[in-house]
User: What shape does this take?
Amino acid sequence: MSLPKSILFVSQDMSYCFAKTTDYLASAAERLGIHTVIRDGADMRANLLVLTGMPNHDPFVARSEKSSLEKTKWLVDEFGIDCVLSLDLCWLVLPDLFIDHPQIRRIYSIWYDDFTSFLEAYINVIYPFRTHSFQDIVRNPKVIHSFYGIAMARECQLFGFANQVSSNLAAPREFLDLEYPCEIRDKVAFIGNPGFRGPPHPIALERMDAGADLHELRELSRFEILRAVELGRFAWTKDHPQIPEIIKAATLLKVDSPFISGVEILEMLRDTYPDGFEVLNKNSMILKASWIVKLVVRYDRPAFVRRMYKKGLCDVISNPLEWVPYGVESSESIPAHKLPRYYMRYAAHLNASNCLRDATANEKIFEISACARTSVNLRSHDILNCYGPEEIYLADTLAESEEIVRHIIKHPDEALAKGLKARQRTAQEHTWEHRLANLFKHF
Amino acid sequence: MTASVTPPEDVSAYYILTREIAPRAVKLLHYFGREIHRQGHRSFSRDMSESEAISRLLREIHEPADKVDLAEILHASKHEQMITIGIINPIVSCDLHWLIALQPYTRGIHTKRVYSLWPGDLEDFVHVTKYAPQKEMTILETVNHECVRHLFFDPAMLDTAKKIGFKNVAPIIPAAPVEYLEGSIPPSIEKLAYLTPDEPALPSPNFLTCNGDTAALRKLALEETLNAFDADPVPGIDKNTLQAILEKQLSQPEVNAIDIILGILPASLPPADMIRLVGITRSIFHYDVPALIRLLAQAGIVEVFGYPEIWKQYGVQAHPAPRMHTLPAYYQTFHGHLFTAQPDKNLTVSEQPFEAAACGRIPVVIGMPQITGWLPQAYEAKSSVPVALVDELRALLNNRSDMLRRGTEARETIGSAHTWDHRLKFFAMEGT
Assistant: This one.
């Protein structure tokens, strides 16, 4: 296998907790004997935000871009960079540079966020496209996209992301060597946010308290979506009379098939509603429609967590403000380097994916497992691809999850034993070294 | 699986601040950072040149203060968040690169230590005076904050810094990357190589008329310096005073410029102006090294690398500088490497001899007496007369097996005492 000689990792803003993954990847690359350089693209983006806020900003943007281009090109030349790697499209802050540089043989986008959320986030501003278009860049043969969910991959395939590698997320090898005592055995923990940040409908909270399970909550969410469409909250749904029908049908399919991606579901309805689909496509609203469809499962994660929390079975650790709408009191977020200690403090953790990501084997399941702890997960194809019932707990409903959590609290040693097995599996199959070795087969 | 490890509860991280447009700093800090990782510490690297670029651009286009503030707040807040979330301690950068966005935060609220590593001269102080936000403290007050430590490669620069008003200064011996100790390719070029450390001065048309005579070249440089002073004067210094300073320095080249200046001026200048004056004073020596290198290149003793367009004007054919990632191969291609003092910057110490030695090649030094103290295998050229120097170096090159032997021994010395691994102990994380 030919490995890159020198990789430039373009990180997200280092002050954000999710930038830790770039660090883990770089450490893994170094262990594979590859020279690495990490640079944070956030400062360039901050400058661009300031400049584009000024009137007649084009010449200043051009000047700022020129100096950033020269500097980054210098970095590539000096360090003999032959490969660029980032989460999502963080490398794209300077369009064209890496695509056009002859020394760079491969650019890897390891998709962590969902496509729409990444592109719409204001912090992901980039310099103007000059030589190539966005589509040409992301489809360039040099660029390889890695998706950790089958549905996520299929979604992007439909958008023409031809060069794809299926690759799960992973855990840092460093976690495998750590030991902290398991101090809390009478509760499990959930470390994370509710996923979709929109406030829950009061009826949804009532239904959760009344013991509603996933199917009912998904139907409720569907009802909210259709009501919003009816009330004209999404102006683009009026572009064609078939569009509200598409949303109706797509959300119904999503209730029954939660792990099929929004875009795939829409594609399935193309023949039934050809004109409406055509308008959605031509008006560049497919992603918006897909986003709405994904919201059908928006209550999965928060309901999962809230149920356990309200019954005194779970501690929640995250930005407290985010859980306030759900009536959950969470303790403060913890910095990335302290995560292992918190993972190991509990015998088991809840794990549920973010509804917007059409991918369920998130990074957390690997980190928890690397820390020799087990997790309680909603069953999905992605999860089953990574761990089995001897390593993690799997549930199909919230009621089942609750039984599992109560069982863990009664039998923490069983959970800890599963955690050890999860750690072994992680060491053998799920570190960032494994992922990079897989990616570099295409180098 | 390896044996289980319980790390300390609160593990601090190094925050390494580079400035991408300063290649030497990038190189030094890159290898420093790699050593940190190798030793199991956490670290984050960040490029400060973007913070500086936006400050500079907004000031130049006379953007209103609130816009400049916004940019500076954006950058400063990122750093503060890093320091808080990442439990950053210490901050490490070359020169004052950290100061561009961190000036308000040296009150030590979160960070307990800031290290400024000074591999060269003090020009960066002048630079940051133009672009760093000065909100709560002056630049000098910030530089002298109790949490800041200044580490100097060069003793004359350390002395200059103290006399300008720096506190908390200490010497540090340069080092080489551990990576350079690995690998070996046989040398193929039977010459010394000279890697130009800094951009040489452009020669005036009269350079060649001096025929390489050091005294004549210095007089020429003195006249040129005086003539150029009107275009970029130092406030508070008239031309007569400058002339007195330059002539005194000319008569006592071995004396530190700061001592010459302080012996003449009735009162001290602000630090930035003093540093500029030091630089102007030493510029009377800016033809010394080009003349020497020209002589040695013409004699077939050295191959010159770096700044080919400027060397062309000296009649010297130079190659582009090797890329950072090819430096080990570059060092190993030659039988030895020539390093000289930089009299125009008052510098006699650099990390380059250590790098060459780490690659198993003998450093040949001129005017750098401290190097042989740290690296006994280095060769110190003694001849002061040009013709004798050429003969001396030619004789050295004729004994290549001895050169390689000394290079191998120098590599062992580096491995035992002069890698960044050894220097990391200097950066003890106090108070964590």
